[in-house]
Structure formats: C-alpha cells, structure tokens
Task: inverse folding
C-alpha cells in the first residue's frame, strides 16, 4: 500500500503485468474510492455548470455522462472530470482525488460571484467507487443485478440494485475496455467488492493502481498532474473534442484564441526503440526544439515502451525524435493514439 | 505482502543495495535479490555493462527497470566483467522468476576476493530486509 492523495492505495496485488492482461482478456476490479464526488443541485445547477465545464452541459440529458474540463481564465486545466446528469436540476461531478479541495474552492468561488441558485455538496467521503473493467465485466455484474436488467449504453448510467445495494452504475472507465464504474455508499462499498469477487470467481482479477496506469497509458488517456495542469490547456493536450466553444464558460476566450492560432506544443504518443521506460520529466530531444515526457511505461498489450509527452506542435505522427534516458538518446517515433487498439 | 518470506540463500553474499554475489569457481556471479525483484515488481528491461569493462566498488554498472520503477545496479566489489547475461534482453522476467538462478546478471573476476568479507551474510541481509519491511 502506498499513500496517494491522502489514501492508502494498492499499487499492485500480485503483478502489474498480470493484472493488466487480465483486464484486457477477462475482467479486473479496481478500488478507486479515492476519487471525489461533488453534487450540484438547484434550479440553476445546469446554468452554473455551463460556466465551469468545457463540454456541453445543456445537451447532457438525464442518464448521460460527459467528460470535460474545468479551466481557469488562462485556459489552464484545474481538473478533468466526468459530469453526470443525475436529475433535471442535479449534477454529480466525479473529480480527481488530488483536486477535491481545489475544485470545491473553485466551484464555491465562482458560485459566490455568479449568485446562481444552486447548492454544492462534497459527497466524497460518503461515496465509494469501484471500477469493474474488461470484456467479462457486464456478465459478472449481471449475476448480481435483477434478471432482465438492461445495461446502460456507453457514456450512460443507471441506478440499480447490485446484490441488494443501491448503486449508480456508469458504463464508463479508464482502461479502454467495456465495463462499469460503480458508485456505492461508502459503508457498503466493501460489500459490493466482496459480492463481485464471490460471484465472478476466477474470471475476475483484483487490479491495482499500477495496472490502472499502464491501461490508461496504452489508451493515451490523460492523468491530471502528468498530462494536465494549470500550465497546459485542453487544446495543447489534444482534447478539443471535449471543448464545446461558444457557450461562455470560464477560460473560453483563451481557448478560442489558442484554437484559432494553433498551439505551439502538442501532446503526442511516442513509441520507443527497445524496452527502456521514458519516465515523467525526461527530455524529448530534437534539432527543432525539445519536449518533455509526461507519462511513460512498458505497454504490456503493445509489448513495447510507450510514452506521452509535449513536443513542438510541428511534429506529427511519423516524426523521429529521441528521449534522453540516463544520458543516452534513445530513438522514438511519434505515433497516433491510442497505442492500443482492440482487434 | 507482509507474510511473504523472501528467499535469501545462505551460499551468497549480500549488499545493502540488494545485490547478491555468489562465488562460482574463479568468478563471482552477481544478481538482484528476491526482495529487490519483489519490490520492483514486473521487470521489463535490464541494461548490462560491456564485457571486459572494469568495475570499481560502488560503481553503477547497469540498470534494472520495472513497470513501477528504475533501479541502479551497484558493483559491490572491484573487478573485470567477464560474462554478461545477454539472454536477459529478451527475458527480463527471469529476474522475477528466478532471481538467484536464471536471473543472474553479470560475472566478474574480482580484483581482491577478500573484499567479499566486507559484505553481508544471509542472516545479516535478512535482518536488513526485515528492518526495512517493518518501517
């Protein structure tokens, strides 16, 4: 167990590689209860969220989930979050553990200035979150759901009773595999975990943060604090499709300008020669300007060393660069992402 | 993980940085311990020194890289590298599977075999591991 954002987290149960492969081949169960949950409710809840969220809130019908960002005036990213339309006048924001306090402060600050009629509540401590991911995930969950339960479509959620426990079942994830993220009352989350394990048997592997990281890196999903922070904006990070311009959210003018002018640097995927791992902070070297690695790992499903990093915007897929690893320049190639594509 | 008993063979010498050394005729074979491989988890890359290179005691002679972390390999005693385990390029997982056998990394001819006396015994190393695990 290692401390992460104030939580004791399992990095690995047995082997990161085995857990990773289990999720790709069968199913894995992750405890991600460290994630934060912020509730916004009231007559002006949607209008309030429209000011904060880069993606379209009004177009998010009840029962739908959207990924997007909270940006500062500068366009820099305060957090990347998923937004759940849990009611006509109610939203649930699932936020990064390390940003719960910052997000809450930001929401309250904006709220104090805009005077919109809604309340903000931090439900993080009262809410547990498990991620059941992999091709067998839906079949495993079905064993504990009412017969005839119809799974929500991708990027949708449903309220359900799982083994008699009221949960919010979201057809989303951070692995590139099908599956659910399961929000449960904190005091019953262990029970959900145990019941899923018992029902699934050998098909299900327990999976830690290590595998979560290799899985998300193969999909080139950003991780806050690595690819995203206040110094980087969503356009540079290649997240344009989660930025719905023309809605008047905070940071929009900066992003509009960035989008029109084109960013100077861009987040790209790198495939390295050999199996040495490019770690965050390593220099990406080119005659036309340097870059920096933000995440890097050995990709078990790629069987190669992969990395994400910011490079001068001119480099497109196919460009040959180098990563400086312990004084040596290791060749790498800019490749299209995700690294891992399901066959 | 707390109940895990690490393998620490009595026929090896040990270092504080978790290398093992085993006298094998005229050469000394070097690898990393069961504790080290377990802490690193899945090993994906091993950087080896050149054959024939001269190592000073305390010198970094290579690198072991896992999904989780990277760790220097430290030469505990001076000597010449006479064998490198080239098979590890394709099978870095041997360090996880069999750290004291198939997972050996290099063999050296020591400058001075008396230097081995300054290293830890299996019993000393077990105490060293337990002290850290107990933290």
Result:
């Amino acid at each position: 167990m290692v401390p992460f954002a104030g939580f004791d987290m399992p990095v690995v149960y047995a082997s990161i590689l085995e857990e990773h492969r289990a999720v790709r081949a069968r199913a894995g169960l992750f405890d991600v209860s460290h994630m934060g949950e912020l509730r916004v409710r009231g007559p002006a809840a949607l209008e309030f969220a429209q000011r904060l969220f880069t993606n379209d809130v009004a177009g998010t019908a009840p029962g739908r989930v959207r990924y997007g960002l909270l940006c500062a005036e500068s366009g820099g990213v305060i957090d990347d979050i998923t937004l759940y339309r849990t009611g006509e006048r109610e939203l649930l924001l699932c936020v990064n553990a390390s940003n719960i306090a910052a997000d809450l402060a930001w929401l309250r600050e904006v709220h104090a200035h805009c005077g919109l009629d809604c309340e903000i509540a931090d439900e993080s401590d009262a809410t547990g979150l498990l991620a059941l991911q992999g091709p067998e995930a839906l079949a495993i969950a079905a064993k504990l759901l009412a017969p005839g339960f119809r799974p929500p479509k991708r990027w949708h959620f449903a309220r359900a009773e799982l083994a008699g426990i009221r949960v919010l079942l979201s057809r989303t994830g951070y692995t590139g595999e099908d599956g659910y993220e399961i929000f449960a009352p904190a005091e019953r989350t262990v029970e959900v975990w145990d019941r899923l394990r018992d029902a699934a048997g050998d098909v299900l592997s327990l999976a830690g943060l290590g595998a979560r990281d290799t899985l998300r890196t193969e999909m080139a999903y950003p991780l806050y604090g690595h690819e995203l922070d206040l110094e980087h904006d969503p356009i540079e990070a290649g997240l344009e499709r989660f930025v719905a311009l023309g809605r008047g959210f905070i940071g929009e003018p900066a992003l509009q300008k960035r989008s029109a002018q084109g960013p100077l640097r861009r987040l790209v995927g790198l495939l390295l020669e050999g199996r040495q791992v490019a770690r965050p902070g390593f220099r990406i070297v080119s005659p036309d300007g340097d870059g920096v690695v933000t995440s890097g790992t050995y990709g078990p499903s790629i069987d190669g060393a992969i990395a994400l990093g910011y490079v001068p915007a001119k480099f497109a897929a196919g460009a040959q660069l180098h990563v400086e690893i312990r004084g040596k320049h290791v060749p790498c190639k800019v490749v299209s992402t995700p690294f891992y594509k399901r066959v | 993980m707390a109940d895990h008993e690490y393998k620490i063979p009595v026929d090896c010498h040990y270092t504080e940085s978790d290398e093992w050394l085993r006298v094998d005729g005229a050469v000394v074979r070097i690898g990393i311990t069961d504790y080290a491989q377990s802490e690193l988890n899945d090993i994906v890359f091993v950087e080896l020194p050149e054959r024939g290179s001269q190592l000073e005691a305390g010198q970094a002679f290579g690198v072991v890289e896992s999904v989780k972390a990277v760790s220097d390999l430290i030469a505990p005693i001076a000597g010449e590298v006479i064998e490198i385990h080239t098979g590890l390029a394709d099978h870095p997982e041997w360090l996880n599977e069999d750290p004291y056998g198939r997972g050996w990394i290099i063999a050296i001819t020591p400058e001075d075999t008396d230097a081995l006396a300054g290293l830890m015994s299996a019993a000393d190393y077990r105490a060293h591991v337990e002290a850290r695990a107990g933290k």
Notes: The mean pLDDT of chain A is 96. Helices of chain A lie at 16-25, 45-52, 100-114, 137-142, 189-200, 209-218, 252-261. The CA atoms of residues 93 and 145 of chain A lie 25 Å apart.
